[in-house]
Amino acid sequence: MKIERQKKRTAEVYTASLNDIMFFLLLFFLIISTMATSSAIRVLLPQASTAQNIVSKRNIQLAITKDMRCYLDNKEIPFDELKPALTEIVATKTAEQEIAIALQADKELSLQQVVDVINIGNELGVKMVLFAKKNR
């Protein structure tokens, strides 16, 4: 009588999809690590007599429509109150801070109206950048 032996089965883990998962995890951690700031390490810096302060810039958006309605950082203010509002912003700046105003003026405004706004910035000692649309 012939007795047939059962074939032994071995346990096997299918790992073909594991490569894809590991690739996506590696990609995820690489992207996240580039976004992380390096401020996690606290270091006490030595002092020097010739050290310079780093100037941080603060940008303010100023938009003026064709009917002279002003929007300072998306908040509408009358044109007459533009100078006091900018004066208040300039008064809050620190010594290490530089304020720049991004001016977006409607193309239908007269040149004199735009110059009047730029003069306000010059009187307060802030830099003004006039935005323009590029021709195609």
How would the blueprint of this fold be written?
Layout (H helix, E strand, L loop, with lengths): L15 H20 L20 E9 L5 E3 L2 E3 L4 H10 L5 E9 L5 H14 L2 E4 L6
Parallel strand pairs: 1-4, 4-5
Antiparallel strand pairs: 1-2, 2-3
CATH architecture level-2 label of the domain at 56-130: 2-Layer Sandwich
Oligomer: single chain
Major β-sheet strand ordering: 3-2-1-4-5
**Which stretches are low in confidence, meaning pLDDT under 50 for 5 or more residues running?**
none
**For this structure, what is the CATH class of the domain at 56-130?**
Alpha Beta
Class derived from helix and strand content: alpha/beta
Number of helices: 3
How many DSSP E strands?
A: 5
Helix and strand pattern? HEEEHEHE
Helix percent band: 25-40%
Percent of residues in beta strands: 15-25%
State the end-to-end distance: 93 Å
Spatial shape = elongated
Report the mean per-residue pLDDT as an integer.
80
CATH topology-level fold name of the domain at 56-130 = Nucleotidyltransferase, domain 5
Largest sheet: number of strands, sense, barrel closure: 5 strands, mixed
> How large, in whole angstroms, is the Cα Rg?
31 Å
